[in-house]
Amino acid sequence: MKLKRESIGNLGNEEIIKYSVDNEKGLKVSILNLGATITEIKTIDRNGEFGHIVLSYEDEKNYIENPSYYGATVGRTAGRIDKGRFTLNDNEYILNKNYGVNSGHGGSVGFNKKIWNVNAIETEEKITLEFSYLSKDLEEGYPGNLEIKVSYEITEDNKLIFKIQGVSDKDTLMNITNHCYFNLSGDYKEDILNHTLKMNCDRFLAIDENGGVTGEIIPVNNTEFDFIEEKKIGQDIEGSSKQMKLGYGYDHPFMFNENEKGNVELYDEKSGRYMKVTTEYPCVVVYSQNFIDGLVLKEGKETKKRNGICLEVQYPPIGYNESFKEFSILKAHEIFNKETIYEFGVK
Ligand code: G6D
Questions:
Q1: Ligand 1 mean position, distance from CA 247 (Å)
Q2: DSSP for 173-200?
Q3: pLDDT digits (tens, 9 = 90+) for 296-306
Q4: What is the pTM of this model?
Q5: Which residues of 274-291 are buried (b: 16+ CB within 10 A; e: fewer)?
Q6: Of the four listed, 2, 194, 215, 298, which is most buried by Cβ atoms within 10 Å?
Q7: In this structure, what DSSP letter does residue 132 have?
Q8: What domains can be seen in the chain, in order of their start residue?
Q9: Residue 46 burial (CB count, 10 A)
Q10: Catalytic site positions
C-alpha cells in the first residue's frame, strides 16, 4: 500500500491537495480535499493493463468549477429539490435555484466546492482517507450546523468502501452521494453503450421536463428501465417512451427492491472489467451523461455524450408536493450513517 500527497494549486488561500493511493494489487485511487472529489480510479483489465475507469479532467484546475460534478461528493442533498424550497417543522426554507426552476446538488456552492479536512490512516491491509466538513446553519439555505464525515477505504482486495456520517444540531435534510462517471473500457476507449448493467430495482421515479421528480412511481417491467436482468446500457437508450425523451437518455432515480440491499453491477466484456456496488441507500440515480461540458479528459481525450455512467446511490430526490422528503430528513442529534462498497475485478 502506498500513499502520496501532493499540492495541485490553491482555492483562495487554501491549498488543494491530492491524495493518491496505490494498493499494489491492481487499484489506484486519487482524491482531492476539494469537494472530497475522486479524480482518478485506475484498475487492470483482463491482460493486467491499467486504465482510467472514471472520467477525469486532464487539467486538474477544472475541479474548482467542476460543471459536471466529476467524482465529487455532492450535498447536502443530491439531485434536484422541486422549486428550490422545502418545509420542515412548519418553517419554509428557500434554496438557490441553480438548476433552472429547481435547486440541485446542494445549491450554488455545494459540498463539491468546499475544502474538506483530511485525515489519512494507514494500516497493512487498507488506507482510509477521512474527509470532514462543518456545514454551518443556513449554508445554502439548509437549517442546522451539520458535521459531516465521508471516508474512502481502499482495501487490499480491490474494494473502495465509501462511508458517510453526519450529525446536526437541528432537524435538517441530508442526502449525500458520490458523482463518479464510470467507464470500464480503460482510458475511455469506448463509450458506455456496450457496458452491461444489472440492478435489483423494480421501480423508477418519473421526471418532468426540468429533470425534477413528479412523485409518480413506475414499475420497470416492460419498460426501457428494466435492468433486473443484465442488459446493455445502449439497448433501449434511444427508446421512444415519454420518460426516456424527457431525460434525453437515463437520468432517473431507480428504487431498489423493498427489503433488499442495493446491488448494481456494471461490466465491460471487451476489457473484462466489472464493478459491483452494494449500498445501504434505497435508491440509485442513473445518469447516462446526456450532456457534456466540453472539457478535455485525461490522455487528451475529447469528452463525448455517453462517455460515462453515473450511479448515484442516495435517497430519492424531493419532487412535486415535497414527495419523498421524509427519506432525507435527519433529526437533530441523530447519527446519519450509510455505507456503499465498490468492488473492482475482471472476469
Ligand atoms: C445529475 O441528474 C443530474 C443530471 O441531470 C446532471 O446534469 C448531472 O448530475 C450533472 O446526476
A1: 10
A2: E-B-EE--EE-TTSTTSS-STTSEEEE-
A3: 999 999 999 99
A4: 0.98
A5: bbbbbbebbbbbbbbbee
A6: 298
A7: E
A8: 2-346 (2.70.98.10)
A9: 13
A10: 179, 312
Question: Is 283 marked as binding a ligand?
Answer: no
331 CA distance to ligand 1 middle (Å)? 27
- With 0-12 / 13-18 / 19 or more C-beta atoms within 10 angstroms meaning exposed / middle / buried, residue 110 is buried
Pairing of strands 73-74, 50-52: unpaired
Q: How many angstroms separate the CA atoms of 199 and 265, rounded?
A: 7
Residue 180 is predicted with a pLDDT of 98
Burial of 17 (0-12, 13-18, 19+ CB in 10 A): middle
Q: pLDDT of 130-176, one tens digit each? A: 999 999 999 999 999 999 999 999 999 999 999 999 999 999 999 99
Q: Is 180 annotated as a binding residue?
A: yes
Q: Mean pLDDT in runs of 10 for the chain (347 residues)? A: 97 97 98 98 98 98 98 98 98 97 98 98 96 98 98 98 98 98 98 98 98 98 98 98 98 98 98 98 98 96 96 98 98 98 98
